[in-house]
């Protein structure tokens, strides 16, 4: 079976796009016609790159898959498996209901891998930006214990609780961040437009200025002349910080250590980690018990 990407028209003349499994192009056209849509273009879907780097680049630059979409997919897959529907038909149902084109393509490829005899864990491991290591390990434990639907259900619960927490944090930080942005913009405008005009008055007076005033004028002249350099340094600093904290194993360990030891913020991160720990511990104990049996 191959995966074909199609562009078709439904009975009302509206354009439809998606993926279909079929042995060949003719069979794909027939399957689409039986489904009540009329194909305009059919081509074989490109095979995914085997490396995790290429899949990460694909997801990072073409389109983003949100955590909410992954959570909804997890919940739906858990419900279908809990109802007794096999894994491959469950992905077929989810594929028809998914609106995100990139997620739809990934689900189609996972379904193709399942048809080839691969495990769900092995198929999901090719997309680390969509399914993080924690998610993959839980799915692996569920497959080993035969309780994949329960594991997916708890993963969905966990993801939804995390999204709710993040939403509350963002809501709490929204007003201070807006005020910080507005305040910084006002200061920047004062330093680049207002202060230079006042500087001309001081120059006409030809008097010795206080040190603080001299420093203020120097800062204003620097911002007016080299604002582009400041923006470049800020963007470069953000990129370097992201690479050092997430791009290397040593950097991630150092950053995680700092996050746990930092004042106030470290205590908050510790509480979040403790809140997550019982869930992971129960899953680990549950999988070990099944493996012993």
Shape category: elongated
pLDDT average, as an integer?
Answer: 79
Number of strands: 3
Q: What level of helicity do the residues show?
A: over 70%
The topology string of helices and strands comes to EEHEHHHHHHHHHH
Our count of helices gives 11
Tell me what you see in this structure:
Among the domains are: 1-46; 49-164, Type II secretion system (T2SS), domain F (Receptor-associated Protein, Up-down Bundle), CATH 1.20.81.30. The protein has helices at residues 25-34, 52-61, 67-82, 87-97, 101-115, 120-124, 133-145, 148-205, 211-246, 249-261, 265-292; strands at residues 2-9, 15-22, 38-44. Residues 47-62 and 288-293 have low confidence and may be disordered. The longest helix is centred in the middle third of the chain and has 58 residues, at 148-205. It has 293 residues and is mainly alpha-helical. Helix 7 (133-145) packs antiparallel against helix 8 (148-205) and helix 9 (211-246) packs across helix 10.
SSE diagram, text form:
Layout: E1 2-9, E2 15-22, H1 25-34, E3 38-44, H2 52-61, H3 67-82, H4 87-97, H5 101-115, H6 120-124, H7 133-145, H8 148-205, H9 211-246, H10 249-261, H11 265-292
Antiparallel strand pairs: 1-2, 1-3
Which key features would you list for this structure?
mainly alpha, Receptor-associated Protein, three-stranded antiparallel β-sheet, 11 helices, 8% strand, elongated, single chain, 293 residues, disordered C terminus
Briefly characterize the structure.
The chain has eleven helices and three strands, in the order ββαβαααααααααα.
């Amino acid at each position: 079976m191959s995966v074909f990407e199609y562009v078709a028209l439904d009975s009302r003349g509206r354009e439809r796009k998606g993926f279909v499994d079929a042995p060949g192009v003719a069979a794909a056209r027939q399957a689409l016609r039986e489904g009540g849509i009329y194909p305009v273009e059919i081509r074989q879907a490109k095979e995914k790159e085997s490396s995790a780097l290429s899949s990460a680049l694909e997801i990072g630059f073409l389109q983003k898959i949100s955590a909410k979409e992954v959570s909804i997919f997890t919940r739906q897959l858990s419900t279908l498996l809990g109802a007794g529907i096999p894994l491959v038909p469950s992905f077929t149902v989810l594929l028809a209901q998914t609106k995100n084109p990139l997620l739809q393509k990934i689900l189609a490829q996972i379904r193709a891998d399942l048809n080839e005899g691969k495990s769900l864990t092995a198929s999901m491991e090719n997309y680390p930006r969509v399914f993080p290591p924690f998610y993959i390990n839980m799915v692996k434990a569920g497959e080993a214990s035969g309780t994949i639907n329960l594991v997916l259900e708890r993963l969905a619960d966990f993801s939804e609780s995390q999204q709710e927490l993040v939403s509350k944090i963002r809501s709490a930080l929204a007003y201070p961040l807006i005020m910080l942005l507005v305040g910084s913009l006002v200061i920047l405008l004062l330093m680049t437009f207002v202060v230079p005009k006042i500087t001309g008055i001081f120059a006409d007076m030809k008097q010795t200025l206080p040190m603080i005033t001299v420093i203020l004028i120097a800062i204003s002249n620097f911002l007016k002349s080299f604002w582009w350099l400041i923006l470049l340094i800020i963007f470069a600093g953000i990129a370097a910080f992201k690479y050092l904290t997430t791009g290397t194993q040593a950097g991630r360990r150092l950053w995680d250590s700092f996050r746990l030891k930092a004042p106030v913020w470290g205590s908050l991160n510790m509480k979040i980690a403790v809140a997550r720990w019982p869930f992971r511990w129960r899953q680990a104990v549950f999988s070990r018990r099944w493996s012993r049996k």
